[in-house]
């Protein structure tokens, strides 16, 4: 499955929340996500534009692989998320380290998702409060190879309708590590 998304700095989260309500987007419960990122032992994910993370939300966890970004108007990439048994995130992190993967950093954010159905396409819109970075909005939908172009156009159009005009191309991890001593892996 392809994830098609755009991210934007969000100077006024409350105004954005009101705009989402006007469009009929349904607010979901806010959650705190902790994303532990790992780098491959034989190739640098910052160079290959890939990402591997273990995300925890409460006691639940998923491991996510993100492939390199594909060209286009929106950030589009292959994504595979696999659920982990409850309470096993730390153990999986330990397994990855034993296999030679190197912990890069952990990104923590408070995410408030909103769901919107439009013209037969489901969108997830989020307000993210990212520790150390501030507030961001994401506009996302899923696609396959056949529907990729239409999905990108739909994401761009919806973002524009929401008044989001300056996409942030970097991942949260990339932004957090931009001033650090080591280049970051390309992840969200």
Walk me through this protein's architecture:
This protein has 188 residues and is of the alpha+beta class. The chain has one domain (2-177): Hypothetical Protein Pfu-838710-001. The chain is built from 5 helices and 9 strands. It has helices at 13-23, 45-48, 89-98, 148-161, 172-177, and strands at 2-9, 26-27, 31-39, 51-57, 60-66, 75-84, 102-118, 121-130, 134-143. It has an 8-stranded antiparallel beta barrel with strand order 1-6-5-4-3-7-8-9. It is globular. The two termini are 16 Å apart. The relative contact order is 0.26. Residues 181-186 have low confidence and may be disordered.
Q: What is this entry, summarized?
A:
With 188 residues, this protein is an alpha+beta fold.
Defining traits:
Hypothetical Protein Pfu-838710-001; disordered C terminus; single chain; 9 strands; 188 residues; eight-stranded antiparallel β-barrel; globular; 5 helices; alpha+beta
Which architecture does the CATH hierarchy give at level 2?
Answer: Beta Barrel
Tell me the CATH topology.
Answer: Hypothetical Protein Pfu-838710-001
- What proportion of the residues is helical, as a percent range? 10-25%
CATH superfamily: Hypothetical Protein Pfu-838710-001
Strand order of the largest sheet: 1-6-5-4-3-7-8-9
Instruction: Name the structural class.
Output: alpha+beta
Number of domains: 1
Whole-number mean pLDDT: 94
The major sheet is characterized as: 8 strands, antiparallel, barrel
CATH class: Mainly Beta
């Amino acid at each position: 499955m392809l994830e098609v998304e755009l991210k934007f700095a969000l100077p006024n989260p409350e105004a954005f929340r009101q705009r989402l309500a006007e469009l009929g987007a349904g607010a979901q419960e806010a959650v705190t996500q902790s994303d532990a990122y790992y780098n491959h032992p034989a190739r640098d994910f910052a160079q290959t534009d890939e990402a591997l993370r273990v995300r925890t939300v409460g006691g639940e966890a998923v491991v996510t692989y993100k492939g390199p970004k594909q060209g286009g108007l929106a950030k589009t990439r292959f994504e595979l998320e696999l659920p982990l048994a409850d309470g096993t995130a730390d153990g999986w992190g330990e397994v990855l380290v034993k296999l030679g993967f190197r912990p890069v950093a952990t990104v923590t954010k408070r995410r408030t998702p909103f769901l919107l159905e439009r013209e037969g396409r489901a969108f997830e819109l989020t307000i993210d409060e990212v520790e150390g970075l501030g507030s961001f909005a994401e506009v996302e939908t899923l696609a396959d190879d056949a529907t990729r172009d239409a999905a990108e156009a739909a994401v761009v159009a919806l973002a524009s309708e929401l008044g989001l005009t300056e996409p942030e191309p970097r991942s949260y991890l990339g932004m957090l590590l931009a001033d650090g001593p080591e280049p970051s892996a390309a992840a969200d």
